[in-house]
Each structure stands twice: as C-alpha cells, then as structure tokens.
Design a protein that fits this description.
Layout lengths: L1 H4 L7 H22 L6 H31 L4 H12 L1 H21 L1 H17 L9 H13 L3 E6 L14 E6 L5 H17 L4 E3 L3 E4 L9
Antiparallel strand pairs: 1-2, 2-4, 3-4
C-alpha cells in the first residue's frame, strides 16, 4: 500500500480499491474463523487493536477513492497524511488503539456493564425506535451514502421475493431507493455510489434502475 501511495497519483484508485477489498475479506475471516476461538484477554486485545487500525485504514482509503471519483484531483498533503498514518501503524496500535480496545473489552466483560448494556438494548427494542438506534454500521453507512447522493426514500429487504431472473446465486439483500419525479439520472447516480462503496468492501453487486442487489447480508427494515 505504501508503494502505491508514494506514487501520489489518482491512477492508483482502482488498485487501492482492490487492496481495501482484500483487507475486508481478511478481517471477516479473522472475525468468523479465528477470533471466537481465542480465550486469553491479552490475545484478544492484540487482535482487536490491530483490527481497529485496519478498520480506520479502510475508511481512510475509501474516502480517498471517493474523493478521486468526485474531484479527479488529490492534494499532495492528502497522500502524505495517508502515508504518515500507515508508517505510524505500530505506535497507533500499541498506544491509541490498544487503550481504546482495553476499555471496550473491560466494559464487555464487566458484569455490571453487561447488565446495563442489555437493559438499554431491551428498552430500545421495546420502543422499536430504529431511527435513533444503530443496528449495524454498514446499514447506516449505506443509508448515509444514498441520502447524500439525493435519495428521499430508502429501504433494505431480503431478495426472497424477487424473481430468479433478477438475482444472482449468492444474492442476500435488496437495497431500494427513490427520488422525487423518478429522475432516472439521479437514481443511477445513487445506485453507482452504493455500488462503489460495496465493491470497495469486497462484496458482489448488481445494479438495477432503482435498487441494488448484493451478496452482503444486511439487517432488513421492519415491515
């Protein structure tokens, strides 16, 4: 990644997107296959600290890709900030991220904190206040991207009721969006923004006129 960024060229955007997708797949593998098996708190702390660094790195690189697409020009200082962040990896992991993760793990394993958290979650479900309660960062990020691009309507459902001709084998979720007056150009723009984001995360995407189908399993909206 450093070799790419040191070129200080917007032409590296596609390569950066591929690296982001690879990072994301590796993180998902660690979380699903390896992290649940780890019992020692110190080992969990090391892994979480490293993952938090890479989460932030992916976010920064995703912003870089989006800025390239939107402006077709990047200030050299922007490249330097990304390079500095990567070169400071070990200090960030052993300092900033380790402290944050230690607090998170302590809170998670502290019985009273767990009880308080479970009480808050139970109250949120009882009130069914989805507007103020974030169920998943990906759902919220996709919704934010759609609204920023101009969507006035947005919903997430499963692909269960779609005809086979519209979906692909691994399809999981349908993301619908709408705009006033059915502006087709605006619908396409919104779809492209969501598509870019999901593909940068390593997910498969099919773009329809007013919706996006993806193999990412998202939490569906309430009926």
């Amino acid at each position: 990644m450093l070799e790419l960024l040191e070129k200080k060229s917007i032409k590296i955007a596609d390569n950066v997107a591929k690296v982001c997708a690879d990072f994301n797949k590796q993180i998902n593998l660690i979380l699903k296959k390896y992290y649940p098996e780890i019992k020692e708190m110190d080992d969990k702390l090391i892994i979480k600290s490293n993952l938090k660094f890479y989460y932030d790195l992916i976010d920064k690189l995703t912003d870089f890709i989006r800025n390239v697409e939107n402006f077709q020009k990047i200030d050299e200082k922007y490249f330097h900030s990304l390079i500095d962040f990567i070169e400071d990896k070990e200090n960030l992991i052993s300092g900033k991220y380790k402290n944050i993760c230690r607090q998170e793990l302590t809170a998670f394993y502290d019985e009273k904190s767990r009880e308080n958290l479970e009480k808050i979650i139970a109250e949120k479900f009882e009130k069914r206040s989805r507007q103020f309660f974030t169920f998943g960062s990906l759902e919220e990020e996709i919704k934010k991207i759609a609204r920023t691009a101009g969507a006035t309507q947005f919903s997430i459902t499963s692909v269960d009721n779609l005809p086979d001709t519209q979906i692909f084998e691994s399809a999981q979720s349908l993301i619908r969006f709408g705009v006033p007056s059915e502006n087709k150009a605006k619908l396409k723009e919104i779809g492209e923004e969501i598509k870019r984001y999901l593909e940068s995360k390593g997910y498969k995407v099919k773009l329809l006129e007013d919706s996006v189908i993806t193999d990412l399993k998202l939490l569906p909206d309430e009926a």
